C-alpha cells in the first residue's frame, strides 16, 4: 500500500514548529514506518523508550569521562565533521565505526561526532582518536522533551486531526484516540529534542569552522531542521548510504508532489553518496547530486577467500523475528544431513533471539561481527528485508527473499528469487538450476575511500554551491 499519498497535498507542511519546521517531517516516520504498518500487521510492535537504570547511569558517566579527555577536539578547527550513530566492529587494533571511520581517517583534521553505544560492548580503544560523543547532549534533550513536549502540542494536535481524517478517507483505516494521542506525544518530543540538539551541533560546527557535515541517514525527515539551518550557515550536507533502501521505503522516498515543494528541498541534504548506481534509482528525494562511491565494508572484505561449506544462512531484519527463526528451524530439520543452518540476527533483535533460541536447538546463531566472513562460507542466504542480501551478490550463489506482506510492501524490483512457503524454499535450496546472475558493479562501486576523498576535494573547491537555496 502506498502510504505516501498522504503527503501528496503540500498543505500537510503548513503545520510548523516554533522554529518554523514542518511538523509533518517529525511525525512522518512514526506514522508511515511504524503505526500504519503495525495496524496492517506488517511489522512487529515498537520497542518502548529506555528507563533510567544503572546501565544508563554508568553509560552517561563513561561518556562524560571520555568527553572530558577529548574536550580539545571540539575547540579545534574541523572542516569536515561526521555526525553518526555508533555501528561497528572490534578488531585486533581496536573498535572501528563501520559507517564512517575509514572515511574520517583519510584526513587527520576530520572529526567524528558519535552516539556512544548503550547496550553494545563498550568500544574501549578506538582506531579513530578524533571521536567525540554527542550522546550526553542528545540524551539530555530527549529527557527534557518528555516533560516539556506540550510546547508544541497545539500545532501537532491540529496536524494529527488532519492526518486522522486523511488516513480514514484514503485508506479506510481508523486511528484510535489512543493512537492519535501517542502520535501527538512522540511527535512533540521528537520535534523538541531534535531541534534543540541540532542547535548544539550547529553551534559546535560554527566554532570549529566546519564546511561539510556528513550524516548517515541525513535525508530521514527528523533531520529537517539540522539540514536546513546547516545549509543557511554555508555548510554542505552529505548523506552517506548506510543500509537498505528501496523505492517502497518511505524513510528514503517522498511523494512526487512534496519533492517539488521548496520546503522539502530546503530541508534535504545537498549530496547523496551511495553504494552504487542501482541504489541511486531507489530514492525520491530532491538531492542536488547523487554520487556512487561504494561501500567501505565491501572493499575491506570482498577479497575474502571463498570457503566451500554446506551452510545456509538466515538473515534477521528486525521484524517478525520468531517467524523467520521458525522457518530456519523447519529447514534445519529437513536438511540436517546435508547442511548446517545458521541465523544471523539484526542488532535490534539480538535480545529477542536469545529468548527464543533454546526452543530451536537445530539452528546455530551467527554473532560474527564481520558479515563478509560468514558470507564467504555460505551456499545459500535467506531473508525478508536486509542489506545483507545485496552484500551477498557476487559472493553467495543462491539468494532468496521470503515474500511476506512486509517484503511485498518494501520491494518493487527485487533482483532475487522469491518464495512464500517453507516447502517452496526447500525445493529452491535443493535445486541445481537456481542461481543469481546479477551484475555486481551495478550495486557496488569499488574503492569507496578513494572516491570519497575525491568528492570531498571537489566539493571544497566549489564551496557551498547549494542549488536548493
SSE map:
Layout: H1 24-39, H2 54-69, E1 80-85, E2 88-91, E3 94-97, H3 101-104, E4 111-115, E5 131-133, H4 135-148, H5 153-171, H6 177-207, E6 212-216, H7 224-232, E7 236-240, H8 256-259, H9 262-266, E8 271-274, H10 277-280, E9 289-292, H11 296-301, E10 311-315, H12 321-335, E11 340-344, H13 350-356, E12 364-365, H14 371-375, E13 378-383, H15 387-391, E14 398-402, H16 405-410, E15 417-419, H17 422-430, H18 440-443, H19 448-462
Parallel strand pairs: 1-4, 1-6, 4-5, 6-7, 7-8, 8-9, 10-11, 10-13, 11-12, 13-14, 14-15
Antiparallel strand pairs: 2-3
Helix pairs in contact: 1-6, 4-6, 5-6, 6-7
Tag the structure with descriptive keywords.
469 residues, alpha/beta, six-stranded parallel sheet, Rossmann fold, 2 domains
Verbal overview:
It is built from 19 helices and 15 strands. The chain has 469 residues and is an alpha/beta fold. The chain has 2 domains: 1-295 and 445-469, no CATH class; 300-442, Rossmann fold (3-Layer(aba) Sandwich), CATH 3.40.50. It has a 7-stranded parallel beta sheet, with helices on both faces. A 6-stranded parallel beta sheet has the order 12-11-10-13-14-15, with helices on one face. A two-stranded antiparallel sheet has the order 2-3. α1 packs across α6 and α6 packs parallel to α7 (224-232). It starts with 23 loop residues before the first helix and ends in a 7-residue tail after the last helix. The model is unreliable at 464-469 (pLDDT under 50).
Amino acid at each position: 500500500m502506498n502510504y505516501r499519498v498522504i503527503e501528496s497535498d503540500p498543505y500537510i507542511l503548513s503545520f510548523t514548529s516554533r522554529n518554523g519546521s514542518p511538523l509533518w517531517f517529525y511525525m512522518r516516520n512514526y506514522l508511515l514506518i511504524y503505526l500504519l504498518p503495525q495496524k496492517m500487521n506488517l511489522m512487529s510492535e515498537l520497542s518502548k523508550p529506555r528507563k533510567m537504570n544503572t546501565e544508563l547511569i554508568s553509560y552517561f558517566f563513561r561518556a562524560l569521562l571520555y568527553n572530558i579527555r577529548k574536550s580539545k577536539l571540539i575547540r579545534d578547527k574541523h572542516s569536515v565533521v561526521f555526525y553518526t550513530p555508533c555501528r561497528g566492529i572490534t578488531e585486533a587494533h581496536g573498535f572501528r565505526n563501520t559507517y564512517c571511520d575509514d572515511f574520517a581517517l583519510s584526513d587527520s583534521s576530520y572529526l567524528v561526532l558519535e552516539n556512544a553505544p548503550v547496550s553494545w560492548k563498550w568500544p574501549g580503544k578506538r582506531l579513530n582518536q578524533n571521536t567525540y560523543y554527542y550522546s550526553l547532549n542528545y540524551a539530555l534533550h530527549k529527557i527534557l522533551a518528555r516533560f516539556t513536549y506540550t510546547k508544541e502540542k497545539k500545532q501537532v494536535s491540529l496536524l494529527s486531526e488532519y492526518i486522522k481524517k486523511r488516513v480514514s478517507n484514503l485508506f479506510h483505516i481508523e486511528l484510535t484516540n489512543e493512537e492519535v494521542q501517542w502520535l501527538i506525544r512522540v511527535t512533540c518530543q521528537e520535534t523538541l529534542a531534535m531541534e534543540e540538539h541540532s542547535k548544539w551541533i550547529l553551534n559546535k560546527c560554527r566554532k570549529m569552522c566546519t564546511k561539510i557535515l556528513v550524516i548517515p541517514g541525513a535525508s530521514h525527515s527528523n533531520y529537517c531542521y539540522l539540514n536546513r539551518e546547516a545549509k543557511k550557515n554555508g555548510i554542505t550536507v552529505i548523506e552517506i548510504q548506510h543500509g537498505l533502501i528501496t523505492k517502497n521505503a518511505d524513510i528514503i522516498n517522498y511523494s512526487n508532489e512534496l519533492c517539488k515543494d521548496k520546503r522539502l528541498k530546503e530541508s534535504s541534504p545537498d549530496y547523496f553518496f551511495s553504494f552504487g548506481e542501482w541504489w541511486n534509482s531507489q530514492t525520491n528525494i530532491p538531492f542536488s547530486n547523487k554520487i556512487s562511491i561504494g561501500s567501505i565494508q565491501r572493499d575491506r572484505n570482498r577479497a575474502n577467500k571463498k570457503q566451500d561449506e554446506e551452510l545456509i544462512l538466515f538473515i534477521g531484519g528486525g521484524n517478525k523475528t520468531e517467524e523467520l527463526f521458525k522457518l530456519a528451524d523447519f529447514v534445519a530439520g529437513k536438511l540436517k544431513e546435508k547442511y548446517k543452518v545458521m541465523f544471523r540476527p539484526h542488532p535490534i533483535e539480538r535480545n529477542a533471539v536469545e529468548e527464543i533460541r533454546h526452543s530451536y536447538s537445530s539452528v546455530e546463531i551467527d554473532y560474527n561481527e564481520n558479515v563478509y566472513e560468514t558470507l564467504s562460507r555460505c551456499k545459500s542466504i535467506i531473508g525478508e528485508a536486509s542489506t545483507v542480501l545485496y552484500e551477498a551478490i557476487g559472493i553467495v550463489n543462491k539468494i532468496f527473499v521470503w515474500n511476506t506482506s512486509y517484503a511485498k510492501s518494501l520491494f518493487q524490483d527485487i533482483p532475487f528469487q522469491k518464495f512464500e512457503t517453507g516447502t517452496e524454499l526447500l525445493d529452491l535450496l535443493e535445486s541445481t538450476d537456481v542461481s543469481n546472475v546479477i551484475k555486481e558493479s551495478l550495486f557496488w562501486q569499488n574503492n569507496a575511500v578513494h572516491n570519497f576523498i575525491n568528492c570531498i576535494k571537489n566539493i571544497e573547491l566549489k564551496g557551498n554551491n547549494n542549488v536548493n537555496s
